[in-house]
Write a structure and sequence with these properties.
five-stranded mixed beta sheet; mainly beta; 6% helix; 459 residues; 5 helices; elongated
């Protein structure tokens, strides 16, 4: 508690005047000397308007409080935002520093205030009328009206239970034909754990055959056909079903209109087909019936998926420049039809076995076709490799005559004595000693009557 300090002036000849002045301001002096004391902590409830209003009596101790106001109340939240005596519900649970000041004296005291929620939500259930087959989930039908002071709508906890009463044909309510009544008991709970409940009555209005809309043909004219392997012709969310006001007839026990169908399936190719679906819609109250035919085409326009094997390498025979190739199977997938795969290359068609394939590189094309004529292909490389080195045969002794100028030139073939290779010899090379390889070697007079060693290389 703080109080203002007052100083009195003193001087000769002024005693009577000052005495009269003190007498005149005495009530104000008494007010300046008043005392204030606040409770350390206080809880203030939030009203249905979403605000908590702080009254001085909620903060001040009963005694010793002699200040009589008027009072100023200021509140500061944890982020430093300043409020008056009216605090919003978003401050629920926060410690709020509140200062109450006596305006007459300037004295003040402080308390820590916490907002609390003591008021339960208030539910109001209204009566609803919806046509039979309309979805009854709250997401479509809606929720009751709720008055809640502190918890946001999305944070409320909702629960409900339904009691459904099937009504006789011809039952009327509010001058309207109804087929069933749903008594839905709602319970809503706020973040403080406070709850309220109400009972909502939902009347299901009777529907008639003249309200029925049949699904369109899926034949490529009225609507696109279904794709085999992707669209399920027996899934009514895909093919459509008879509906009323845009909602499928679900054959619920509480509706008087029911639907059924029979299929005649005519295969066309692979897994593709043409389905003649006959719909029957029956009114259980009048025993009347509607019949409608829906054409559903299931086509296969998707090519198969094919993956070729990796590169194949085979080697030639050691006695001939050919090899034997057997082509592996490709990996193929089709979600609708069987697939035939045929490898095609310059040696023929099919996986083989292929004999006497000359050395070289080849491209094999794997062609895939499903039962509806859709095609796909991929390619694989085949290499037939000669990995056998030539067999060199040399003359043991070769005489090389010198020319008149005393020199001689001998080509590499001069020293060959029948060298052989299964894929043929490309060329010969020769050298003397450690000299570089060349097509020929040379001699001169220094080599006369000498034995010179040469080396033959067969390529």
């Amino acid at each position: 508690m703080k109080k203002k300090q007052h100083k009195q002036a003193r001087g000769p000849g002024l005693g009577l005047f000052l005495g009269l002045a003190a007498l005149l301001v005495l009530p104000k002096g008494i007010q300046a000397q008043c005392t204030m004391a606040c409770v350390a902590q206080a809880e203030v409830a939030i009203g249905y308007d979403g605000f908590a209003v702080i009254a001085p009596s909620q903060l001040l101790e009963p005694a010793p409080n002699s200040c009589i106001g008027p009072y100023l109340i200021e509140a500061v939240d944890t982020s430093g935002q300043v409020f008056g005596d009216s605090l919003p519900a978003v401050l629920l649970g926060q410690p709020i520093e509140v200062t109450i000041t006596d305006l007459a004296s300037g004295n003040y005291c402080q308390s820590t205030v916490t907002l609390i929620d003591t008021l339960p939500p208030q539910l109001t259930c209204d009566e609803r009328f919806v046509y039979c087959h309309f979805p009854l989930e709250p997401a479509q039908l809606g929720y009751p009206t709720v008055l809640e002071n502190a918890t946001p709508f999305d944070s409320l906890q909702w629960s409900w239970t339904d009691v459904i009463t099937d009504l006789d044909c011809g039952t009327e309510y509010a001058d309207t034909l109804v087929t069933a009544r749903v008594d839905r008991t709602w319970v809503v709970t706020d973040a403080a754990g406070l709850s309220d409940t109400c009972v909502q009555t939902i009347w299901l209005l009777r529907t008639t055959l003249d309200m029925v809309v049949f699904p369109p043909h899926l034949d490529g004219f009225a609507a696109p056909p279904l794709e085999c392997g992707q669209d399920d012709p027996f899934d009514l969310t895909v093919t459509g079903a008879p509906s009323i006001l845009g909602y499928p007839i679900d054959n619920g026990a509480n509706c008087d209109i029911v639907a059924s169908y029979v299929d005649q399936i005519n295969p066309t190719c692979g897994g593709a087909s043409k389905i003649v679906r006959t719909w029957f819609v029956f009114d259980l109250c009048t025993n009347e019936q509607l019949t409608n035919v829906q054409i559903i085409k299931v086509v296969d326009t998707t090519p198969p998926q094919i993956e070729c094997p990796g590169k194949q390498v085979v080697y030639t025979y050691s006695t001939a420049c050919v090899g034997t190739v057997e082509l592996p199977e490709a990996t193929v997938f089709d979600d609708c039809s069987e697939v035939a795969v045929t490898p095609v290359w310059e040696m023929g068609t099919g996986t083989g076995t292929y004999y006497n394939v000359p050395a070289g590189n080849y491209v094999v094309t794997y062609q895939a076709q499903d039962a509806c004529g859709n095609e796909a292909s991929c390619e694989m490389e085949v290499s037939v490799i000669d990995d056998d080195p030539p067999v060199p045969l040399c003359d043991i002794v070769t005489a090389v005559p010198l020319q008149a100028d005393g020199t001689a030139l001998a080509f590499a073939e001069t020293f060959d004595n029948g060298s052989w290779d299964n894929c043929g010899i490309d060329h010969f090379e020769v050298r003397r000693g450690d000299l570089p390889w060349d097509e020929y070697v040379t001699f001169d007079c220094a080599d006369l009557d000498a034995t010179v060693q040469v080396t033959l290389k067969v390529v």
